[in-house]
Design goal:
The complex is a heterotrimer of chains A (438), B (224) and C (320). Chain A has 14 helices and 13 strands. Chain A is of the alpha/beta class. In chain A, a hairpin with an 8-residue loop joins β1 and β2. In chain A, 45% of the residues are buried. Chain B is built from 7 helices and no strands. The longest helix of chain B has 36 residues. Helices cover 48% and strands 12% of the residues of chain C. The longest helix of chain C is centred in the last third of the chain and has 29 residues. The chains are: A alpha/beta (438), B mainly alpha (224), C alpha/beta (320). Chains A and C meet through loops of A and α6 and α7 of C.
Chain lengths: 438, 224, 320
């Protein structure tokens, strides 16, 4: 309570700079004791009066002879908006002695007291800094802070801030634009799914790689060789792996129909269990549950290049007729695809990692580029409601194209001709499409 | 029932995690779920390791072709497991880090695993050459553009690129091969990559919605 | 390890049997493949592998290096150091760790040698805790051996590492002493001759920021070079970071040394102008050897492939 009064009075009087010079002590803890606070109050009042009396105040007159720096002033603590009540921001005006040409100030230290307890050091900061984010607070406590100027071993502390209890908010309105965009894109996807269900005719362009799946499986059947399915090297928490498995579901059903062999070495245990379930169910749907065996899927190793060595070995020894490389791939993409190519297999690859796409395009017969990997299962199913979801993506692409063209024109006009109107558009677009809440 | 429960869990958790982005008190939910996943994945490793052993011990038992490789796999598996589990040769006591310098685990990692990894990675140099030989052919218009771009970038990475075009005045320096290579990488290439990334982002949204809404259930093995 | 004399083709001549033999084999083999391709025969992938193996291993075994020609973006840095008046002050920032060192250390070495040969003065700074050890090592390896007359405090000084990331830059751009009251050996800056008349980074003549992470060259450009009255900044960065630096060239950075190629170009420029460094190790040029030869071999194979493709008439066939 008393520190709050100190701060309040200091703020009201409006000569904080001078006031604070007077309160500087070398003590590590500010006056939390009522009597000490009273003393400080007295000193403040006396200084305030003398400051007013000496108008115009000459700050130099208050420089202490032993060259002690002035403390930071206007120390204010504010609650961080749109959080779970776990952050407050402390800002201050740097000490007047914190000038580039002076070496008096070595930096600042920030202290905090929770629920009226002792002040504890939070952090030491460089000179010139005037803000600190305290992210170790809870809404259950009340906090006060002060900041001190460091000069050698000496510290000169500011007044104590007002009490603050961090507040939490239910909705982060900084993300309002993200929400709007998400609603538009998701909404249009759902709307197209609904329309497709109602029987509307939707055009989806041909994807050559997926049209070739039938042919590729048929080829393996004719040649009496196995099909190799590689779902990438990431775990089930990556959406590319899931996309790979959805395609596996479609492929496995056909394999069961044709009675072809499938070989699936994986690099993650969870992918192994999930893939087994997928294949087993596909065999059931195909009416051949007896033909399924757990040995179709085997775990090799989580180690990236160890896995590559094992898969390359399987390719060379078993010479599969068809290879599917569908999922997340890294440096191993070309090593796998080139080995597959050397044994003459038909290869259908797909990944959403742009850096690996060129390798697949160079070494495979068909490549699903980025979004085609995610569209594959829907495309292969041929179900209207699945295809509808692909149509919904086009709305998102339309928004992206429009924003890119608008942004390009606006920034060009704003920088080339310095037209405020275009600057306004550019700033507006920036605001809409930046997800970082400031 | 076997389908409904996973579908409900998917719907509930998926929706919750999307909503949590906009609700500050739930902002750490995504992180927490990632942790849960990691914990589950650790337990699943017993399944994977068990499967690996079963496959290779069966091969050994049946004396299948190439059973020699299985011996290497099984011995390597147990050797590394024992070295890590019992901290063989660890300096200090059992509380020392498993990767402490001088431990058997770390020695094997440095002298066996790392060189093997580098060897596999080095294969890339060979495969890039054979893939370029096959792929960069002027089969059609697109392939010709690809071929020319690839050639400029390759040339720009060697001293010959600068030698060949050093005569171009500095005011036209963008036409010098190394600078042209930089331009190709930074402008057309980057633009294309970004377009692909935007498509991927939308593809992920669409696929996630299909999964959350239960329209896409192939991964559960349901195919009707 | 058999010590081979470094031999540089083209620029510095030389005759060495292993090099001649290996180049004859590669060149002869290429000719044979060219004739085969003209007869529209495809090359087996294993032959491609043999040539790549030869192209990568020959430069490593026999230290074949190729003479690099500096691109304007590298020349900008070289010429600045070359044309500054003697005794200019150059800040060398070591913002990297041992993992990044193989790629960027050669740049730092080349610039240090160049600057000291031009009789400039050097100020070493690191914003990375791991950078200080590399900095100490570099200083102790290069200066006493190659420039024995150079004195600590007069010709060069190391300020060491300071925690605080770009905050440090923000302060030293207006006051060096506030962040670095002493040099790395504890000598007050006021007693160091180099700092006579230097209060801030605005008083030095140039900054060469070597690194690739954050904080690093980009922060030096934004916080020091772009400050009003800030010194000219040149950067040396890892190849993967180089594209992020191009937008700052030429207005905000003098030049960019990107990856091993940038280092090799600088080394080559240095060797052309200062034959005294001919005996020094040039890791940039050395590491460019396998890369250059492999690129040449791949380019040759692309040409062969297209020759065989067109002469064989396969371009008329319908493909999948």
């Amino acid at each position: 309570m008393p520190p709050a009064i100190v701060n309040f009075i200091a703020g009201q009087v409006g000569v904080q700079q001078l006031v604070v010079s007077g309160t500087s002590t070398t003590a590590q803890t500010p006056p939390s004791h009522p009597r000490a606070a009273f003393l400080v109050l007295l000193i403040i009042i006396s200084f305030t009066i003398s400051a007013i009396a000496q108008e115009p105040a000459d700050t130099a007159a208050f420089d202490l002879p032993d060259e002690r720096p002035a403390p930071p002033t206007s120390v204010v603590v504010t609650d961080f908006k749109y959080d779970a009540g776990n952050r407050v921001d402390i800002t201050w005006v740097p000490s007047i002695d914190d000038q580039p040409e002076l070496t008096l100030v070595d930096g600042y230290t920030v202290y905090r007291s929770a629920n009226g307890g002792d002040y504890k050091l939070l952090d030491s900061l460089l000179p010139g800094i005037s803000m600190y984010e305290d992210e170790e607070v809870t809404p259950d406590s009340v906090y006060t802070y002060y900041v001190a100027t460091m000069s050698g071993k000496d510290t000169v502390q500011s007044v104590v801030t007002q009490e603050i209890r961090p507040e939490w908010e239910l909705v982060n309105f900084d993300l309002a634009w993200l929400f709007v965009i998400a609603v538009i894109i998701s909404g249009s996807i759902v709307w197209f799914i609904w329309r497709a269900r109602a029987g509307a005719d939707l055009f989806v362009r041909k994807i050559a790689g997926l049209d070739a799946v039938d042919e590729a499986i048929g080829r393996a059947t004719e040649m009496g060789r196995p099909i190799l399915f590689i779902p990438g090297i990431l775990d089930m928490d990556d959406v590319q792996t899931i996309a790979g498995l959805t395609i596996l579901g479609r492929v496995a059903k056909q394999i069961a129909d044709y009675d072809t062999r499938i070989r699936m070495p994986v690099s993650r245990s969870l992918v192994m269990t999930a893939a087994r379930e997928t294949i087993k169910a596909s065999y059931q749907v195909a009416g051949r549950p007896d033909a399924y065996s757990d040995d179709m899927v085997s775990y090799v190793t989580d180690e990236q290049f160890g896995y590559v060595a094992a898969v390359d070995g399987i390719m060379v020894r078993e010479k599969p007729a068809t290879i599917f490389l569908l999922g997340a791939f890294f440096a191993e993409s070309l090593i796998l695809a080139e080995t597959g190519n050397s044994i003459g297999a038909i290869q259908i690859a797909g990944t959403a990692r742009p850096a690996q796409l060129p390798f697949f395009i160079a070494a495979c017969d068909f490549t699903l580029i980025g979004e085609e990997l995610f569209a594959a299962s829907a495309y292969l199913s041929g179900e209207p409601k699945q295809l509808g979801s692909l149509k919904g993506q086009d709305v998102g692409k339309g928004i992206a194209m429009l924003a890119i063209i608008l942004g390009m024109v606006a920034v060009t006009m704003a920088t080339a001709f310095e037209i405020d109107f275009f600057q306004m558009i550019a700033d507006g677009l920036n605001q809409v499409f930046s997800t970082k809440a400031e | 029932m076997r389908r409904q429960v996973p579908l409900f869990i998917t719907f509930f958790v998926g929706t919750l995690l999307i909503v949590s982005v906009f609700i500050p008190p739930m902002e750490n939910l995504g992180e927490d779920f990632t942790l849960f996943f990691d914990i589950i994945a650790v337990f699943a490793f017993f399944l994977g390791g068990g499967n690996l052993l079963r496959v290779h011990l069966t091969k050994l038992y049946r004396k299948s072709p190439d059973w020699g490789f299985s011996v290497v796999t099984v011995v390597g598996f147990f050797l590394m497991l024992a070295a890590g589990l019992f901290k063989i040769g660890n300096p200090g006591d059992i509380s020392a880090s498993v990767t402490a310098e001088g431990s058997m685990f770390q020695t094997m990692f440095n002298n066996v695993v790392l060189p093997l990894q580098s060897t596999m990675y080095a294969l890339l140099a060979f495969f890039i050459a054979s893939a370029s030989y096959r792929a960069f052919r002027a089969k059609n218009r697109e392939a010709t553009i690809l071929l020319v771009a690839a050639f400029i970038i390759l040339l720009g990475r060697t001293p010959f690129g600068m030698m060949l075009t050093a005569w171009i005045p500095d005011s036209w320096s963008v036409l010098q091969v190394p600078n042209l290579a930089i331009w190709i990488m930074n402008s057309p290439n980057l633009a294309g990559q970004r377009a692909i990334l935007i498509g991927i982002g939308l593809g992920v949204v669409s696929m996630s919605l299909r999964i959350i809404l239960g329209i896409e259930r192939t991964y559960l093995g349901d195919d009707r | 390890m058999i010590p081979f004399e470094p031999i540089r083709l083209f620029a510095f001549g030389g005759f060495n049997v292993p090099i001649v033999i290996s180049l004859l084999i590669i060149g002869g083999g290429m000719l044979w493949l060219l004739i085969r391709s003209l007869k529209a025969k495809e090359v087996d992938r294993r032959i491609v592998f043999v040539f790549i193996f030869a192209a990568v291993s020959a430069p490593l075994l026999f230290e074949i290096t190729f003479d690099e020609t500096a691109t304007p973006i590298v020349k900008g840095v070289f010429e600045k150091i070359e044309n500054m008046p003697e005794r200019s002050r150059i800040v060398i920032a070591f913002d990297f760790d041992p993992a990044m060192a193989p790629e960027v250390q050669p740049m730092a070495n080349a610039v240090i040698r160049h600057a000291l040969a031009k009789n400039h003065r050097l100020i070493f700074i690191s914003l990375w805790a791991t950078g200080q050890a590399l900095m100490d090592k570099t200083i102790s390896e290069i200066i006493p051996a190659e420039f024995p007359q150079k004195q600590d405090g007069i010709d060069y000084v190391s300020l060491g590492y300071k925690a605080g990331n770009e905050g440090v830059l923000n302060v030293i751009v207006s006051n060096v002493k506030k962040m670095f009251p002493t040099d790395v050996n504890g000598v007050p800056l006021t007693d160091i001759a180099i700092f006579n008349g230097v209060r801030s980074m605005k008083d030095v003549d140039m900054v060469m920021a070597v690194g690739g992470g954050k904080p690093g060259p980009k922060e030096w450009v934004l916080f020091v070079g772009d400050a009003p009255g800030g010194p000219p900044v040149a950067v040396g960065v890892a190849a993967v970071v180089a594209p992020q630096m191009y937008p700052y060239y030429p207005k905000q950075v003098l030049g960019i040394l990107g990856g091993i190629k940038g280092a090799a170009e600088y080394e080559s420029e240095l060797l052309h102008n200062y034959p005294r460094f001919a005996e020094q190790d040039t890791p940039g040029l050395r590491m460019m050897g396998p890369q250059t030869l492999a690129h040449v071999v791949i380019m040759a194979f692309i040409i062969f492939g297209n020759l065989a493709f067109f002469i064989g008439g396969r371009h008329k066939e319908k493909r999948l």
